[in-house]
Known about the structure:
Elements: H1 2-32, E1 33-35, H2 38-44, E2 48-50, E3 52-67, E4 73-77, E5 82-87, E6 94-95, E7 100-106, E8 115-119, E9 124-129, E10 136-137, E11 142-147, E12 151-159, E13 171-175, E14 183-191, E15 201-209, E16 220-237, E17 242-244, E18 247-253, E19 260-265, E20 267-271, E21 275-280, E22 287-289, H3 293-296, H4 307-315, H5 328-332, H6 343-349, H7 352-379
Antiparallel strand pairs: 1-19, 2-22, 3-12, 3-16, 4-11, 5-7, 5-10, 6-9, 7-8, 9-11, 12-15, 13-14, 13-16, 14-15, 16-21, 17-18, 18-19, 20-21
Amino acid sequence: xxxxxxxxxxxxxxxxxxxxxxxxxxxxxxxxxxxxxxxxxxxxxxxxxxxxxxxxxxxxxxxxxxxxxxxxxxxxxxxxxxxxxxxxxxxxxxxxxxxxxxxxxxxxxxxxxxxxxxxxxxxxxxxxxxxxxxxxxxxxxxxxxxxxxxxxxxxxxxxxxxxxxxxxxxxxxxxxxxxxxxxxxxxxxxxxxxxxxxxxxxxxxxxxxxxxxxxxxxxxxxxxxxxxxxxxxxxxxxxxxxxxxxxxxxxxxxxxxxxxxxxxxxxxxxxxxxxxxxxxxxxxxxxxxxxxxxxxxxxxxxxxxxxxxxxxxxxxxxxxxxxxxxxxxxxxxxxxxxxxxxxxxxxxxxxxxxxxxxxxxxxxxxxxxxxxxxxxxxxx
Length: 380
């Protein structure tokens, strides 16, 4: 008897389960599909990217600043006292080593008093001036600062807990916001001699080529230090992922409907500054929306076309309101007046109320026969 009772829920699920699952699948597709027209796609600026397996890097994020290399800065000064009677360069000028940059009238007697020429010690940029014409000059006074900025330091402030595993030779991608989205590949060449106690960071130093002169000291730098790499990892750009932390979703271009995008739940893994690993929910070859995915989260059916109408036009035949295929019974009953049913068709194909009742009666009768047989066997 207990065995029969255990079988009863499974029998009822076999009877009704397929219908429920089919209805849920259809309603989910209709609810999760956003259908737009070409104008709406252009207004949202939608961009898609193909999902594929690629190398995935584990990174540590840090921020920092551009600084001059101390050894590449020099000053112009005078060995004798006097006053400035000539300035040949100004802040922002480029000079060559040996070029005359100032003239100083000495205090030695003469008419006029003798003058000396001061020259630059290195090639570089005049970055600071401490005198004007007529200013007195003393040997301990700096007149001009010249810096060679063809190479600069990018100093990363690495959080101490994240510094584990980061050593000399670590590769990194650097982005300077003032220069746009361009990334710079660099290698960690040295550490600062002291850690920053207040900030809790260790300073890592990268050398940047600046022959074009676009980088300036003081610019903010964003660092992605690469600590590990894995191959054949399914990942998508981070901007493609939307939703709450407990319900991450991406929008996937529908495989056969133009300008249609399906909201697909995903399970995510590790992430870096650019990409996020996808554990489940996507397959290689899917097209996910990257640029515009956030706006798509709030977009309704901008085209005014329902899922049924779009599928009808794409496939050349009619579909149910939820987008599912019509059954033979639905197709056969099309055109009948409201309230009419084809009971013979329902019974023949096991669809409709008549077919359901027949199947239910057969299952219940079978279960009753099993119960009677079991009771008779116990008595005997």
